Amino acid sequence: MNPGSRMPESSAPLSTDPSTDPSIAAARTVLGEADIARALTRIAHEIVERNKGAADLLLLGIPTRGVQLARRLAERLTQIEPAFDGEYGTLDVTMYRDDLRRQPTRAVGQTVLPGSLDGTIDDKVVVLVDDVLFSGRTIRAALDALNDLGRPRVVQLAALVDRGHRELPIRADYVGKNLPTSRSERVRVRLADVDGGVDAVVISAASTTQASTTQPSMTQPSAGENGGAR
Amino acid sequence: MKHLLTTQGLSKDDAILLLDTSAQMATTQSRENKKLPTLRGRTVVNLFYEDSTRTRISFETAAKRLSADVINFSAKGSSVSKGESLKDTALTLHAMGADAVVVRHSASGAAHQLAHAGWLDAGVLNAGDGMHQHPTQALLDAFTIRRHLVGNVGEDGRGTDTSAGADLSGLRVAIVGDVLHSRVARSNVYLLRTLGAEVTLVAPPTLVPVGVETWPCRVSYHLDETLEQWQPDAVMMLRVQRERMSGGSGSFFPSPMEYSRKFGFDARRLAVLPDHSIVMHPGPMNRGLEISAAAADHPRSVIVEQVANGVAVRMAALYLLLSGTDETSTDERNTL
User: Fold this and answer.
1) Mutate to test the interface with B, among A90, A94, A96, A101 (most CBs of B within 10 A)
2) Inter-chain residue contact A108 with B25, CB threshold 8 Å
3) Residue A153 Cα distances to A23, A48, A125, B114, angstroms
4) What residue spans carry the Low complexity bias annotation (chain A) (predicted)?
5) Where are the domains of chain A?
6) Residue B120 resides in a domain
7) Which residue of B has its CA nearest to A113?
């Protein structure tokens, strides 16, 4: 299996037919807790399969929810590959975004590398972990941020949800679920350890187009809602 | 946040956001590649009407680490010496498309005037105006205090800062020396109080400003008494600003030696303090006057670290002022 070939079925903006969606405004749960757990387990296996083990592997989560997903992937990887040390890091991309002047000011998050690395990611196999892959701009920023940290041997991308509508030539190597969406819809990943409640991926029709511009604020850093990819 | 002019009235949330952002900026400064692309294409003007070494260099370094273009302007060797007014200089900077102006001026209120007179639409950072305010200095002092006394970075300052989101509640800070002429003291009193710390000013009566009773702090005329009985967690020594003492040092205290004996910080006074306490000085130091060499170079002195933290704090201030929506100003500028 070549996971890289699994692109979203359609990049056309109208892949969801509104007629099949009875209530436009109502939120719809697409992935439940068990689905998310299974998807992560599969991704963990795919990572080991693709890289023929877990040597030099470094998981880097993109805040906020990517970090929790990276932690869960690291837990699974330690079960599959006892040689894996179970460490993961955090990569904040705020200062590398291309939309800093078009959004309200974002709070800068933390970049934390596992202590065993001694501050360098040279020659590592880096797997970036994010919750929703959307425009691809977050990942572009992440690649720039990585570049300033060192020179990894390979960079791969794992996303829990790929909702299409890419604006840059970027694709994920590991995808939990391809989710055909319309641009106006909002895809939200809810994780128990970040948002409380139960794990879920929820789609809702954005009531207005400003949904994507209003939500990041100074006090609430980044991501999560709306794919966090804008 | 559009301007950073004063710490008086700065909200606690904004202050903590500034400190947290500074902490993130500080971690990027320990990397091999210290430069971030964040403010690429933005222009920061350093407008300095007063002499300054560390503040100007610190702002310049901060702006360059964020990839902004920096233009240095000092009153000496510019049209100011031909009599150009602050307004005309501001209009010139506006025409050149400055995104932020870092201003130091000998007149209190110069930064406020620059920000609110409608001469230019850039963000204004006050880098010291007369005897009024110097907010980034207070922020870097608060940041240094927080790292050491809340974040437990250890004596060498190399440990992991665990203080994200924390304030300074319960900490005691003594600010000692020439309070009258000190914008550093004024900025620190308000900021430290906002962050929950208790502040005591210690100075001879001649160097305590009129109206100090309205400030949110206590005042003492006796250094030894304060150190022994109040046991401050941090002692901030102020520079005796002889250039602002018109009649020479003689007009505010009898002699430098007497000042040094009563208000100078030395190893003996350091020994009175609790073990975790730190010694600070905004620089430049008058060694032998307000602080002895032994105290300045003591392991518990964080004076050199204050300078390093200054870069991180100014990066944070520039980031928070210059990122974010700024549509109108760009449009106006394009029509010029």
Assistant:
1) A101
2) yes
3) 47, 16, 6, 51
4) 207-223
5) 16-228
6) yes
7) B27
pLDDT per residue as tens, chain A (230 positions): 444 444 444 444 443 444 444 444 578 899 999 999 999 999 999 999 999 999 999 999 999 899 999 999 999 999 999 889 888 999 999 999 998 888 888 888 888 888 777 778 999 999 999 999 999 999 999 999 999 999 999 999 999 999 999 999 999 999 999 999 999 999 999 999 888 889 999 998 875 444 444 444 444 444 444 444 44
- Residue B289: CATH number of its domain: 3.40.50.1370
Amino acid A150 reads: G
Q: Is A19 on the interface with B (CB under 8 A)?
A: no
Q: Considering the entire predicted model, what is its pTM?
A: 0.84
- Secondary structure (DSSP) of B275-297: TT-EEE--S---BTTTB-HHHHT
**Beta carbons of B36 and A144 less than 8 Å apart:** no
Residue A107 DSSP one-character state? P
Nearest CB among B24, B320, B325 relative to A102 is that of B325
Tell me if residue B262 falls in helix, strand or coil.
helix
**Domain of residue B320, residue span:** 12-133+309-335
Annotate B97-130 with b (16+ C-beta within 10 A) or e (fewer).
Answer: bbbbbbbbbeeeebbbbbbeeebbbbbbbbbbbb
In B, which residues are within 8 Å of A102 by CB distance? 325
Nearest to B37 among A102, A104, A144 (CB): A144
Number of domains in chain B: 2
Fold of A16-228: Rossmann fold (3.40.50)
